[in-house]
Amino acid sequence: MPKKRRRASRKHPTQTGPSIATASTSPEIVTAARRLLREVEQFRLSIERHNGSEPALLLPTSFEMLAHTDATLRSDIDTLETAYEIIELRKPVAAASRKGISWQGPLHAERIVDLAKIANDDDVDYYTQWRRNVESIAQRAAIRDEDLKHRCGRPTKTTKSPCSNRPVYVPGRGHAGGLGCTRHLTAVEREVVARYFYDAVAHHDCPGCVAESGIACFTDGDDPRKLRSVDGAWPPTRAFAGEEVHTARLDRVQL
Fold first, then answer.
1. CA 84, CA 33: separation in Å to the nearest integer?
2. Region for 160 from its dihedrals, namely left if φ exceeds 0, alpha if ψ lies in -120 to 50, beta otherwise
3. What is the pTM of this model?
4. Do 115 and 93 contact (CB within 8 A), yes or no?
5. Over the Cα atoms of the chain, what is R_g?
6. Exposed, middle or buried: residue 247 (CB in 10 Å: 0-12, 13-18, 19+)?
7. What is the signed CA dihedral for 45, 47, 51, 55, rounded to 10 degrees?
8. Burial class of residue 162, CB neighbours in 10 A (0-12, 13-18, 19+)
9. Do the beta carbons of residue 103 and residue 116 sit within 8 Å?
10. CB within 8 A of 216, min separation 6: which ones?
11. Closest CA to 184 of 165, 198, 210, 169
């Protein structure tokens, strides 16, 4: 039997920001940053002259720290200008990060520059890709939310009212597989679902992590470098009888 792993949880925050229609570039901030850089450079030279003149007092630590930010500031401004150029010249950017995760804007300048570096010839510009990603992410979320709406519906032991728990996951069918929740499965159904989870691990590699057939899935509690993106997102897991498996792996099981 594959080794079982501890179940972990992952929260998926919804990224928010200005709408694509109102988002805009602001070259004015670059001009202001260049002006600030010149002031910082002059400030650093003043401190160097002060420290080299056998001063009667020592300067505050904050002065020293600020004086040495010019290199970082210069690098950040260069990156910002490059990002603006990518946006304004409508240069292509990749639809997903290096880890295969779809992004939503607005992004930091360094991420835009990196997306441009890994873009393919058939990729589109920043605003167009931003719009496409928002639509595709929303579509995936709608499908996921619709699947999560399904309820067990089997009568409870006490009130006989329909159970409101979520049904167990069925490969290829999600929670719409027609079964009950873990509490209301029959003995035969429980055995069938356990077989689904066992077969997924025993006979299939996992698209959602580096686990090969026979190896239990690596999940959020493990090294994140062992996880893989599926369709532009981190794949969810489902658990049964202590076995936690990525849904992308479960869906490889033939019913």
1. 14
2. left
3. 0.76
4. yes
5. 27
6. buried
7. 130
8. exposed
9. no
10. 2, 3, 4, 5, 201, 243, 244, 245
11. 165
pLDDT for 165 equals 96
Strand pairing partners for 174?
170
Q: What angle do CA 82, 234, 224 make, to 5 degrees?
A: 85
DSSP state of 93: -
Q: Which helix or strand (DSSP H or E) is residue 239 part of?
A: strand 237-240
Task: Give tens-digit pLDDT for 59-107.
Answer: 888 988 888 888 899 999 999 999 999 999 999 999 999 999 999 989 9
- Amino acid (one-letter) located at 113: V
Cα 63 from Cα 66, distance rounded (Å): 5
Q: Which of 178, 171, 143, 196 lies closest to 248, judged by CA?
A: 171
User: Helices in 69-181 by DSSP H: which ranges?
Assistant: 70-88, 109-117, 126-148
Q: Torsion over CA of 228, 136, 111 and 219, rounded to 10 degrees?
A: -20
Sign of CA dihedral 67, 70, 71, 75: positive
Residue that has been written with the tokens 């930091």 in this structure: 108
Q: Determine contact, residues 236/227, Cβ cutoff 8 Å.
A: no
**pLDDT tops 70 at residue 8:** no
Is the CB of residue 248 less than 8 Å from the CB of residue 235?
yes
